[in-house]
Amino acid sequence: QVQLVESGGGLVQAGGSLRLSCAASGRTFSRDAMAWFRQAPGKEREFVAAISRTGSTYYTDSVKGRFTISRDNAKNTVYLEMNSLKPEETAVYYCNAVRPPLLGTLNWGTTPLYDCWGQGTQVTVSS
Question: How far apart are CA 12 and CA 127, in angstroms?
């Protein structure tokens, strides 16, 4: 069973920045491709960004150039640096694992692999 603990959220003005962290335990973190998801009020949870165990990254189009995902396998932690935040990105942010790209392709999985979720971290972007 994996445990995920997200942190780093908060209230920020539009155009501001935040850095989220997700600490994972109970599983061999370094083997998994990790990802960030978010869920805005009244909307379904959506994929944001992913990073493979070797550091390859993948982003949903809307955050490319503004968000950066990274990981520290020694600390079992994945990060999401978010810049130029927009009010519509107000959401609870979660981490989970995803399928890494198939060999020789850029075909990433964007469906969460772990059955459980952490509590998430609230990001509120004011206009």
Answer: 9
The string of pLDDT tens digits covering residues 6-65 is 999 999 999 999 999 999 987 767 788 999 999 999 999 999 999 999 999 999 999 999
For residue 78, give the 3-state DSSP assignment: strand
Strands 121-126, 10-13: parallel, antiparallel or unpaired by DSSP? parallel
**Do residues 89 and 30 touch, judged by C-beta distance below 8 A?**
no
User: How many C-beta neighbours within 10 Å does residue 77 have?
Assistant: 18
Region 61-89 average pLDDT: 97
Integer Cα distance of 77 and 1 in angstroms = 16
Residue 71: exposure state from Cβ atoms within 10 A (0-12, 13-18, ≥19)? buried
Which residues in 17-26 are b (16+ Cβ under 10 Å) and which e? ebebbbbbee
Angle at 51 between CA 22 and CA 12, to 5 degrees: 50
Residues 6+ apart with CB under 8 A from 75: 23
